[in-house]
Amino acid sequence: MAVQSTERTGTGPQRSPADRAVIRKVTVRLVPILILLNFVNYVDRVNVGFAATPLSNDLALTSAAYGLGAGIFFIGYFLFEVPSNVMMHRLGARVWLTRIILSWGLVVIGTAFVQGERSFIAVRFLLGVAEAGFFPGILLYLTYWFPARERARVFSLFFLSVPLATVLGAPLSALILQYVRIGDIEPWRVMFFVEGLPAVTLAFVVIKYLPSRPAGAHWLTPDEADRLALIIEKDRAATRASKAHVRGRDVLKNPRVLGLIAVFFGIIYGFYAISFFLTKVIEGLQQRFGTHYSPFEVGLITAIPCAFATIAMLLWSRHSDRTGERAWHVALPCLVGALGVGVALHLGSVFLIVGALSVAAVGIYSAIPPFWQIPTLWLTEAAAAVGLALVNSIGNLAGFAAPYLTGWIHDATGGFETAMFVISGALVGAAVLVVAIAPRRRAEPTPPEVLALSVPSS
């Protein structure tokens, strides 16, 4: 069936009403479950931070040992991401995503049975192995359903689920820690067991209800499936010529890509240091100020910085899209984050400290969405795909370095003040470097009618 998929105006290609309708239908059908998957994924990745104190006490972990266990996840993730991608290419995205989701859920449940430092570190490493490939798997799946222009906006929704996972996940985990009891089992073990179940359940939902391709979607009419296939094919044809001439080794030698790895490392260092140790920092304030909070109250306090960060990230990213400026939209939040982290533990009340940590979270979270737009300012689409994968895989090793070094510094100094200054230094370095290496030209500003229907790109 012949389908007219686009209209052209003086300003470039525009989607026809029928095209927009089918893309909207796909978005409504697929995006909510993909967001839910990412939400559960992030909760299962960082819930070890929500249970940091009772877990460390029961397993007799030092701060360095806890930090090693929290961060070694990223070593497993880094080592097995490429093999996971190869298997996904051979078996298909839907089947391999189901394997990833099921295995990480089972490993989270298995965390409830760890007995000491070695088993804790081992299960965290296995969680990284299990999760490896989830991010590129989602990227691959989206290419089956959305052309590049819509795909960027759809994928941006995933990062919103990260702060929301803390806003909702921290109080939920705290409720389990405080109120759910199964005999004499430690509450943190119950938490891991309970929070691993959604992933196991979602694995069966994905394999049954998430179609691999438009042709297999029963909720698309034949005309809609044909229309969507034509949209996707035209999008691929538009970039096929450039992809044929891109060589990965050219990207690896690009000094700007190497610089972006360092920038992302600095941002992620702050991101995961706060994510894995925020609960411990807040609990440490109880001793300093002679106060007492229940686990649920600690969970609520932990959620406060991420709640502010979610709102700020939306507004700041929309401003970056509207103006087309990227470098300073990364640098300024990094400096704000560095300031908040640097002064937090030198303030005189819990209220002021949580306020400073909220400022830090606002800065760190707000820097990430505009950061991912910078490579496209000088790399072609195909080269950007290689560059982004390189930046993401190596830069995320900060997820290992940050919690381990933060814990080691805490053990060596007896407090988090020095560790906070290290985080500030990483963020300041990222801010200076991104301004130095980012292209001076601006991106094309996003039209207001598109901004009204989208969220910030990430």
Structure keywords:
single chain; 458 residues; mainly alpha; Growth Hormone, Chain: A; 2 domains; two-stranded antiparallel sheet; 78% helix; globular
Quick structural overview:
It comes from Streptomyces eurythermus. This protein has 458 residues and is mainly alpha-helical.
Provide the helix percentage: over 70%
Distance between the termini: 36 Å
Major pleated sheet = 2 strands, antiparallel
The succession of helices and strands, N to C, reads EEHHHHHHHHHHHHHHHHHHH
State the name of the first-level CATH class of the largest domain: Mainly Alpha
**Number of contiguous helices:** 19
Strand content: under 5%
- The number of domains: 2
Summing up helix and strand content along with how strands pair, one would put the structural category as: mainly alpha
Provide the spatial order of strands within the biggest beta sheet.
1-2
The CATH homologous superfamily of the largest domain: MFS general substrate transporter like domains
Mean of all residue-level pLDDT scores: 81
Q: From the 3D coordinates, which CATH architecture of the largest domain would you assign?
A: Up-down Bundle
Say how many strands there are: 2
> Which spans of ≥5 residues are poorly predicted at pLDDT below 50?
4-12, 242-246, 443-458
